[in-house]
Amino acid sequence: MDEALRLHAFASPQPGARLVVLGGVHGDETCGTVAIERVRADLESGRLALRRGELTLVPVANPLARRRQRREGERNLNRSFQPDPRPADYEARITNRLCPVLARHDVLLDLHSFHTDGTPFAMIGPRDNSGPLEPFHRAREEGLLALHLGTDCVVEAWLEVYAARLARRGEAGDARALAFGWGTNEYMRSQGGYAVTLECGQHRDPQAPEVAYRAILASLALLDMAGEPPPPRRPPRLLRLVDVVDREAEGDRLLRDWASFDAVQRGQPIGLRADGQAVAAPCDGVIVFPNPQALPGTEWFYLAVDSDRELRA
């Protein structure tokens, strides 16, 4: 029997922004769930009042993966995130339930955590453009939301790097392969909204739920839905993803316990293939999302460089 999806909706009599917050897109990422349940309790007790707009809270977006206490139920929910008239797995059925929820909102905050040590960071989409990959016209609003989430780093250009990965693998013209790269944020942007993913810290970091909780409150305040905006912080470092390296075999291994934003220099060995061949950094930059447990054929680590983009309040 399929696991049921639980949503909590709050609506003010006063019109305003429509925000949806997701937790537990991956079953082993619990910080968003804890934070969402805390905000729900605040609203239901009256400690927090929704003065305008609509708020939908989804504590566990992938109930099957959560019950199994692993990243995926049957596959990664944050891929192929588009309606499917013939859903073939649990995640496709959940996607069909979540897509209409996202489509009727203006803003998405998607709360995640990561495998290895590292500091929290936000992820945003493309700059305003009318190109074929991911046309978008709300980059300023999206960047403003990222600025208010309180992280020291903001990372851009996920889908561009994913498309380049497909090109290297000879799948550049495969629409299904590109569609597989779509997650919650890409779908939200395709529906006219905007979205930020917040990586709140390592899975078991006791501070990660607090990072997620503060981010929800900051989002509500920025959108004039509830609470007061936090004091301004120094501008975050803005990074642009430029490469992704796949783990190809079980014998592939990283040469150290890398953490997101560890610096690397061009030519520096990062890992070893199963046959002993070194995997070296193609440029100066930083590691993002190192995953020593990545399955063969999936993303092993990303590389990023400083971006020339400016995010302005």
Structure description:
The longest helix has 15 residues, at 31-45. The protein folds into 2 domains: 8-222, 3-Layer(aba) Sandwich (Aminopeptidase); 238-306, RNA polymerase II/Efflux pump adaptor protein, barrel-sandwich hybrid domain (OB fold (Dihydrolipoamide Acetyltransferase, E2P), Beta Barrel). The strands form 2 sheets. The protein has an 11-stranded mixed β-sheet with strand order 1-3-2-4-7-5-6-8-14-13-10, with helices on both faces. It has a 3-stranded antiparallel β-sheet with strand order 9-11-12, with no helix packed on it. Helices cover 27% and strands 23% of the residues. The protein is globular, with a radius of gyration of 19 Å. It contains 8 helices and 14 strands.
Which labels suit this protein?
27% helix; Aminopeptidase; zinc; globular; AspA/AstE_fam; alpha/beta; hydrolase; 8 helices; OB fold (Dihydrolipoamide Acetyltransferase, E2P)
* Unreliable stretches: none
CATH fold category name of the largest domain? Aminopeptidase
Structural class: alpha/beta
Instruction: Determine and state the CATH class of the largest domain.
Output: Alpha Beta
How big a fraction of the residues is strand? 15-25%
The helix content, as a percent range, equals: 25-40%
Rg, alpha carbons: 19 Å
Mean pLDDT: 95
Global geometry: globular
What is the CATH architecture assignment of the largest domain?
A: 3-Layer(aba) Sandwich
Assembly category: single chain
Query: Main β-sheet, in a few words?
Result: 11 strands, mixed
Number of domains: 2
Which strands sit side by side, in order, in the main sheet? 1-3-2-4-7-5-6-8-14-13-10
Taken in chain order, the helices and strands follow as: EEHEHHEEHEHHHEHEEEEEEE
Q: How many β-strand stretches?
A: 14
What's the end-to-end separation, in Å?
47 Å
Number of continuous helical runs: 8
The CATH H-level homologous superfamily of the largest domain: Zn peptidases
